[in-house]
Amino acid sequence: MGQEEIFRKELAELVRLGKSQGNQLSEEQVKEAFPNSGIDESKISFIYEYLMQNKIAVEEEFDPEEVMSTEDKDFLAMFMEELEALPRVTEEEKKAVILAAMEDDEASRSRLLEIFLPKVAEIAKLYAGQGVLMEDLIGEGNVALAAAVSMTSCVDKPEEAEGFFAGMIMDAMEVLVSAEADEKEIDDKILEQVNRVAAAAEELYKELRRKITPEELAEETDLTVGEIEEAFRLSGEQIDTIEFGKT
Fold first, then answer.
1. Please, what is the end-to-end C-alpha distance for the chain in angstroms?
2. Which CATH class is domain 65-179?
3. What are the residue ranges spanned by the domains of the chain?
4. pLDDT tens digits for 160-183?
5. Residue 169 and residue 103: Cα distance in Å, rounded?
6. Which residue in 24, 50, 97, 151 is deepest, having the highest Cβ count within 10 Å?
7. How far apart are CA 69 and CA 48, in angstroms?
8. Per-residue model confidence as pLDDT tens digits over 186-216
9. Cα(175)–Cα(157) distance, integer angstroms
10. Is the pTM for the entire model greater than 0.70?
11. pLDDT at 93
12. Sign of CA dihedral 234, 239, 245, 247
């Protein structure tokens, strides 16, 4: 494993630690997070910027409300209101339900789902403002919780159950956020390609005072006919300065 790959892995672990601590880290934790790859001045600014992009504060309090949209706040409030109707449990009652679920008791597993639904909302707030709707985060978290509860028998001790559930919920939400980021990156690249072709076509259109063909545009720019045709298709055929069928 190369140094760059080690660094990326340690950075991902640091982000995960920050999420588990309510989107907060200490400066000491940041310094200690890279024992194998090491950090120097060239990486410090990148690390802090990356943490900021992931809504993780260093030596500061993080308020998820500040990065949540009105839509997200409304959905979260509605979800929390629904949870108010669920019966409360003491820590002792929770432990008893976990122990029964560890013995594959189906009724106890169903009860565990109810008990840990607030944990889904709590964790979802940690991923607020990262391009995924609160509704989708909670939906994905609920699915992950159901899967985790079905695996309660894999837990060695009842005290480990909550951490096990939280870990699976976080993993599911991180995958969702990552997939959304990848999709946005693709969308941004598509938009960049369309805009580039449209701008070049507009410039040549003004020069020739007529619609132009992909072949003409390719001759006057570093674009290929294939790139032009692809951009035209991706635009929904809305680049009206380009005309097909003529040479």
1. 53
2. mainly alpha
3. 3-62, 65-179, 185-234
4. 999 999 999 999 998 998 888 777
5. 22
6. 97
7. 24
8. 888 888 888 989 999 999 989 889 998 999 8
9. 27
10. no
11. 94
12. negative
